[in-house]
Each structure stands twice: as structure tokens, then as C-alpha cells.
Prior knowledge:
By secondary structure, the chain is mainly alpha-helical. The protein has helices spanning 2-14, 16-19, 24-40, 58-88, 91-94, 104-122, 124-138, 142-161, 168-175, 181-204, 222-249, 253-272, 277-282, 287-305, 308-319, 323-333, 339-349, 357-368, 378-387, 391-397, 399-419, and strands at residues 45-49, 52-56.
Amino acid sequence: xxxxxxxxxxxxxxxxxxxxxxxxxxxxxxxxxxxxxxxxxxxxxxxxxxxxxxxxxxxxxxxxxxxxxxxxxxxxxxxxxxxxxxxxxxxxxxxxxxxxxxxxxxxxxxxxxxxxxxxxxxxxxxxxxxxxxxxxxxxxxxxxxxxxxxxxxxxxxxxxxxxxxxxxxxxxxxxxxxxxxxxxxxxxxxxxxxxxxxxxxxxxxxxxxxxxxxxxxxxxxxxxxxxxxxxxxxxxxxxxxxxxxxxxxxxxxxxxxxxxxxxxxxxxxxxxxxxxxxxxxxxxxxxxxxxxxxxxxxxxxxxxxxxxxxxxxxxxxxxxxxxxxxxxxxxxxxxxxxxxxxxxxxxxxxxxxxxxxxxxxxxxxxxxxxxxxxxxxxxxxxxxxxxxxxxxxxxxxxxxxxxxxxxxxxxxxxxxxxxxx
Length: 421
């Protein structure tokens, strides 16, 4: 019954546009019903501890998984709140000056590079939303803007996978102690760059990127522009310190993010006298996304607790000849269905040690694979809703570019061991 509820809920999430049901609703209902069934029917539950299966009390195990899910939830709340502070003080508007150029091709490379780097710090979803708002103010032609957005989605997803705070799935692997910051960057940065560069290079030869471009000047006052730059530099610097806090001090990522948020709010309230800064910031926190992640994590943990994911991992290991093929297929699957539950299931299915290559492969494929179809990533879904991008237009014009970029980075991951010899 628990498995059937999960499958039904998963289908509602994957086909939310077809059923016209927001994915948050099946996510939280799925979690509540699955755990209610386990507790009410007293279904035997287990915890994998040091490769030993230990029988546990259902209510105790629910509290345990609630704590694990809350780590990611509070990390997201802190990150979203910092982004809201940047937006309130026009921090992203201030960087519009970086986009001045006179040719479409140069502008494409600038927008791809900025989205790649920005997503590594503020996550790929937020970076995409920021760049959509900038593109609306710089590219008046709607059809031209769609092509730029296609490359923004690819570059933002590629930029998010190599940073522990750049993509929710990478963050999940990092918080779950599957990867460390240094090894993640060492293994994933180059394939991510390849994915972005090769995709942008192919797109740059498309006819739409020929010719000149005129970009409107920034209409911010000098004071607002300087204030925006200050808030942007302060916020991004403190967010970059979160992995440092975890590595050097050892505090959990969500505590590091909350510390950074506290410092930013203190400085802003004192420097600019913003008495109601908290009300303004927390109004912009995306509660629906937080509830979705929360529901998914608890739903997957219910399958883990009844031993279903443990059995599934054994079946995969016996059926597929190597885990590298498994990860490649997972990347293709993530282009169709949401990669958050896919990675959450992977974390609990496999018991490979810290910094095993499988986790780095998963980090890469779950993010970049989501670019192949428009519905495969949060960045793509966001762009689809904000700019009314047609799914089949993206499939025809952009998907093949994203697939080539995805394969390029994956090939590098396969041959990386030969470079390190």
C-alpha cells in the first residue's frame, strides 16, 4: 500500500501540467499518507546502520528522518532569504552593466557565463529567474529571447552541479555526507564547464545569434547601483563561506547558512535603517518549493524504512553491469521526471562510501540531464511559466544542444581516471 501510494503520488508530480495539480499537493499528501499507513498498520521498519539492518520503532524513525529533511529545509529557507535581501536592494539589477555588448553572439557568451557562475552561488533556479528578468529588460524581441533562455537553462543547470550550494540535488548529496566540497569541485567542475561551453559554442552558430544588438542602459540611480553592488558582494561572499564553515569548523550547512543570513540582516538593518526588513524578506520566501522538498524527502524515507529501496538497489546492481550505465540512465530519466525524488532515492538505495565516483556522477547527471527536456529541471519549469515557452519548441530547438552538452561532460567523467594516472 505504501509503495502504491508513492507511485500514484509520483505520477501526479511528474504529470502536474496534465492533471492541473500543483506538485506540492501530492508531495505533502504522499508523505503524510505513507507514514500514517506505516504507523497505523504497524508495518515493520528498518534503519541501515553501518551496513547492518536494525529494526526500529516507526515513530522514532519518523522523527529521525524528520530531522534529516529539516536540515535541507532550513538550508533552503536561509538561502532563499538571502536572495530576497539581494532582490530588495536591487543587487541583481546592479549587474546589468555587465551585459553591454554590440553583437548577439558576444551577448550569448556573456549570458551563458554569468548564468553558469551565478547558479553556483545562488542555485540554478534563482539564477534562471534573475536572468529572465534581466533578459526581459534587454532583449525586446520575444523569439530571440527564447533562444537565449534555452542556453540560460543549460548553463544554469551545468553551473549548479559542481557547487554544494548550486543545485538542490547536489546540496542533498553534500548534506547527506556523500560528497565533500573539494572533491566535488575537483571532479565535476571541468565536465560542467564542458557541458556549458560546448552547448553555447554549438548555439552560437545558429542564425538567430548573427548580427548586432542594442541593450538599454541601466536606469538605476548611482546610489541604488552602489548599494545594490554592496549587498550583492556581501551576500555572495557570505554564501560562499558556508562550505568553508562546514570544512573548517565542522558545523552543519544549514547552521552556516543561517549564520550568514543573520550577519546580512544585521548589517542591512543597521546600515540602511530597515526596521521591517524581516517582514519584507520572508514574504518572498518560496514556501511552496520548501513544502515540496519536505514532502518528497519524507515520502522517500518511508520507502527506505520499509526496505523497498534497499531491495531495489540490489535488483539494479544485479541487472545493470556497471553503476556508470545506471547513472547515465538516471540522467536521462531526470530529463522527464523531477530529479529531487530521484536523487533522494539514490542516496538511500546505494551505500557507497564518501566521495565515491558514483556520487559525483549522480551530481552531474541529475542536474545537466534535466536540461534535455524543458520539464526536467526547476530552472526549465520556471522559465516555461515565466516566459510561456512551448515544450515542443524547446524540444525542437534546444533539446539536442542540451543532449550533446550532457554527453560531452559525461564522457569526460568516464575518461577522467586516465588523466589522473
